[in-house]
Amino acid sequence: MNVRSQGPRVVAAMLAGFALGGCAEAQARMGSFLTNPGSVTSASASSEKVFSVLWWTKADETEGLPYKPIEPASPEYDPATGAVYAATSDGKVHAFASDGRHLWDAEVGGPFNAGPTLTEGRLYVGTSRGDLVALDAADGKTLWTYSAGDALQTRPVVSDGLVLVMTSSDTLLAIDAEKGDWKWQYRREAPGLFTLHGAGRPAVADGRVLAGFADGYAVALDIADGGLLWAKQLSNQERFNDVDASPVIDDWGRAYFAAYGSGLHAIDAATGDTVWTYAKPGITALAIDPNNGRLFAGGPGFISAHAGDTGLPRWTMAMGEERYVTGLTVADGPLLLAATGRGPLLFLDTRNGKLRKAFDPGHGVYAAATRAARGDTLVLSNRGYVYNLAIEAPVR
């Protein structure tokens, strides 16, 4: 582990995006954005101030960049201290103070397919080499390592004393959070051909672990022992049945899944019964607004909003075939933040889909943004820079 002190770079200018038409069926097409991470500039025809950059700092200190760099791991945030944690393609987890000062680096042996999770002073992170690692959040020291022997695909979920994570072979692992011992696992056989690379982060509610699999099934497991409570087939196409978008759960006991080959599915989390389905193939990311239960979906070329009780669309934004959604985050505003792979981070009005701003500090934003305290939002760019963005005021 390497500890160093480094002050944040404070950016005075903010990246302003562009505003395109948005209404009940908003349709828009994005342009291209390239800016230097040390000189974030305006690219907007609108004077509306949606966010500003509080600070930014480089996490991945690797000399030089790949031809097309990707950082898929969302940052983590400690609400008690304001500390920020980022796992980057240099194989390290980096810690920053609330003002952006660098605290420590921990060599974990990544790279990473997803970000870390903070619980009770511990950081849990999985690597693409198959190691699940627990770190002391105060200094980055390794507490334990569990070797899964398979690439770990999702940000860990910590619940009921267990760390839950999905592997690239469609296996859900449950590991003891205190000691790092194996407790149970559940696996489904993936189809032999035409599946997507990836997995959805499991969700936990009322002692049930909800997860989707590449064979088109969603399941609920008993968190105590991994026993199967129910299994529901959501897609039975010739190919791409993957249920890879991380499921979300609302306050009414509905679990929302997305099967790439069929569309949206609302399932009663307790019984596995279907509440509704909406045919919309191609979904790769889901998010839900906790204030009103509205559901958001994204995939290649589109972002859409749906009523949580019926699935009916409220608005759709077309982005063009060259863009696809890699992560969705509901933030203050009310705003929906959409990561678009090697494209910009989009700021959309959740009410009508209007594009308010776009943020691209160079090479795009692949990882979903992380909502922090006081309206702040954390972003890890594909160039390995961490940004703390402040949402300025509610969208009018």
Low-pLDDT ranges: 1-45
Number of strand elements: 32
Tally of distinct domains: 1
User: For this structure, what is the CATH class?
Assistant: Mainly Beta
CATH level-3 fold name: Methylamine Dehydrogenase, Chain H
Which strands sit side by side, in order, in the main sheet?
1-32-31-30
User: In DSSP terms, counting alpha (H) and pi (I) runs of 4 or more, how many helices?
Assistant: 0
In CATH, the homologous superfamily goes by the name YVTN repeat-like/Quinoprotein amine dehydrogenase
Estimate percent helicity: under 10%
Describe what you observe in this structure:
The protein has 396 residues and is an all-beta fold. It has one domain: YVTN repeat-like/Quinoprotein amine dehydrogenase (Methylamine Dehydrogenase, Chain H). The protein contains no helices and 32 strands. The strands form eight sheets. Strands 1-32-31-30 form a four-stranded antiparallel beta sheet, with no helix packed on it. A four-stranded antiparallel beta sheet has the order 2-3-4-5, with no helix packed on it. A hairpin with a 4-residue loop joins strand 31 and strand 32. It is globular, with a radius of gyration of 20 Å. The termini are far apart. 52% of the residues are buried.
Descriptive keywords:
396 residues, mainly beta, 32 strands
Q: What is this entry, summarized?
A:
Helix content is about 0%, strand content about 40%. It is mainly β and about 400 residues long.
